[in-house]
Design goal:
Elements: H1 2-26, H2 32-56, H3 66-90, H4 94-105, H5 109-120, H6 125-151, H7 157-165, H8 168-184, H9 191-202, H10 204-215, H11 225-249, H12 254-265, H13 271-278, H14 283-310
Length: 314
């Protein structure tokens, strides 16, 4: 019963915050332009600060090992490579191929995943944050490459590198690591600044979930049902089950396993819709993937957390 309560307490707050966003949108507290601005501000300020503070607050004894980060990176790349082999064999249209591969490999690790890490392992959330910091830029690179391949253009390495270096989440993680290292040398952030940054970062996750709830439309799909079903099964069942099983076999437990669960099992990132629009992918299918993986993950993530807690892995 304790594990069931923990699982409910992990998933239900996410659902309620998303629901509050949907209700606020329904009663016209904000329009789409306001949502776009709020999303930009959250992504560029609140979430990077939240990531940085999560890393800074992690004790040096609990910091993730390089082998763990390498495992998260390798797992992300492997999923992409497998999908590059499978999806073209079952989907004839290039505009859908890239979108499907991106939908399967590109999890919403920051907005959906980090809150789970904060609830399950509050004292070691820096480990989860570092996993996210490795996975996010990796997926960004792979998504650009995949969408360019199926658009028929050669990926531009300089553009990809510039996008990584300018990514606010990458910058936030780098700053967090820098100040974490300084803390180990006895140079900490002054208390007044620390308090302000902590309060600032705490705004990121709830605001991002409210925006996500207001942005998605949980209407029944009118088209692309076959493609959507393939992505749903792959993203929410096949990838997380295989990824978590491999992680357990490799010996990962606790916060490290939570970080890998988030990397493999989070719903498709909202930004995948925007990228599909900009790079010639099927944006209608991309939007449906975001909506339905988000809805489905509320169930699947509950199940995964419950099972892993019951078996003593997290």
């Amino acid at each position: 019963m304790e594990h069931l309560a923990t699982s409910v307490n992990v998933v239900l707050p996410l659902f309620l915050l998303m629901l509050s966003g949907k209700l606020m949108k329904r009663i016209n507290l904000f329009d789409q332009r306001t949502l776009d601005i709020m999303n930009k501000v959250t992504f560029r300020t609140f979430l990077p600060v939240s990531l940085a503070m999560s890393i800074y607050n992690t004790s040096h004894e609990n910091m993730a090992q390089p082998s763990f980060l390498a495992f998260a990176f390798a797992g992300t790349v492997l999923v992409c490579l497998i999908m590059l082999v499978i999806i073209p064999r079952i989907e004839p249209e290039n505009a859908r191929r890239g979108v499907m591969i991106q939908g399967i490999m590109r999890g919403n690790s920051v907005i959906f995943g980090l809150p789970i890490g904060m609830i399950l392992c509050p004292d070691e959330v820096g480990t989860v944050a570092l996993a996210v910091a490795v996975v996010v830029p990796t997926i960004n690179i792979l998504s650009v490459v995949v969408l360019e391949i199926f658009r028929g253009q050669k990926p531009a390495p300089r553009k990809i590198l510039r996008g990584i270096l300018h990514n606010p989440l990458v910058i936030g993680s780098a700053i967090g690591l820098l100040f974490w290292e300084l803390k180990g040398l006895g140079i900490g952030i002054p208390q007044a600044v620390y308090t302000a940054l902590s309060d600032f970062g705490k705004l990121g996750t709830p605001l991002a979930l409210i925006i996500l709830g207001a942005s998605v439309d949980f209407g029944l799909p009118r088209s692309h049902k076959r493609q959507l079903l393939i992505v749903l099964v792959a993203r929410l069942v096949l990838v997380p089950v295989a990824g978590v099983a491999a992680s357990i076999a490799a010996g990962y437990r606790g916060a490290e396993l939570v970080g890998l669960l988030i990397a493999f099992g989070a719903p498709t990132a909202v930004s995948s819709f925007t990228m599909a629009q900009e790079m010639g992918g099927d944006s209608e299918l991309a939007g449906q993937i975001v909506v339905w993986t988000t809805a489905g993950s509320l169930v699947t993530m509950f199940v995964y957390v419950f099972l892993l807690r019951s078996l003593g892995f997290i």
